[in-house]
Design goal:
It is a single chain. By secondary structure, the protein is an all-alpha fold. The chain has a domain of 87 residues: AF1531-like domain (DNA polymerase, domain 1, Orthogonal Bundle), CATH 1.10.150. 32% of the residues lie in helices and 3% in strands. It has four helices and two strands, in the order H-E-H-H-H-E. It has a two-stranded parallel sheet with strand order 1-2. The longest helix is centred in the first third of the chain and has 20 residues. It is rod-shaped, with a radius of gyration of 56 Å. The N and C termini lie far apart (201 Å).
């Protein structure tokens, strides 16, 4: 029985070694696959790689890992040395995350009707013109009283 358990453990170890020996595509691997499949990548860096990929799209080359927060040039060099020929970027043309369908566009908002033009105010002179004061008429003169008509003299009576 111990021998059977030992054989089973050995077979599982071989399968896991073969699994981990495969190349890991940075554009499709989950955080768990990155963590377990790459030497020098822990859970924090694996999550950072996946988050960066989801936010900025697929990697175009392995060197793009330096854009991930927490991975500098030296870290990448060590990662490549420890994991020779394990890192790939796969086919960049197909995104790792299925494309989100585009939102339907809203119809254009009709333009607001324009208000009719306000008629111009009549222009007023800057200083109001004071009306001319009529000249004071001269005192009216009293018409002359007609002289009393004189009676014609009566002819002497005859």
């Amino acid at each position: 029985m111990k021998f059977l358990n030992l054989m089973l453990a050995l077979i599982l170890a071989l399968f896991s070694a073969v699994t981990f020996a495969q190349a890991i595509d940075l554009n499709t691997a989950s955080a768990t696959e990155l963590e377990k499949g790459l030497k020098g990548i822990g859970p924090a860096k694996a999550n950072a790689i996946v988050e960066y990929r989801e936010a900025h799209g697929p990697f175009t080359s392995v060197n793009d890992l330096t854009k991930v927060p927490g991975i500098k040039e030296k870290t990448l060099e060590k990662l490549l040395a420890d994991n020779q020929n394990k890192l790939t970027v796969g086919d960049v043309a197909t995104p790792a995350v299925p494309a989100v369908p585009a939102k339907p566009t809203m119809p254009a908002v009709p333009a607001k009707p324009t208000m009719p033009a306000v008629p111009a105010k009549p222009t007023m002179p800057a200083v109001p013109v004071t009306p001319a004061v009529p000249a004071i008429p001269a005192k009216p003169t009293m018409p002359a009283v007609p002289a009393k008509p004189t009676m014609p003299a009566q002819p002497p009576s005859q």
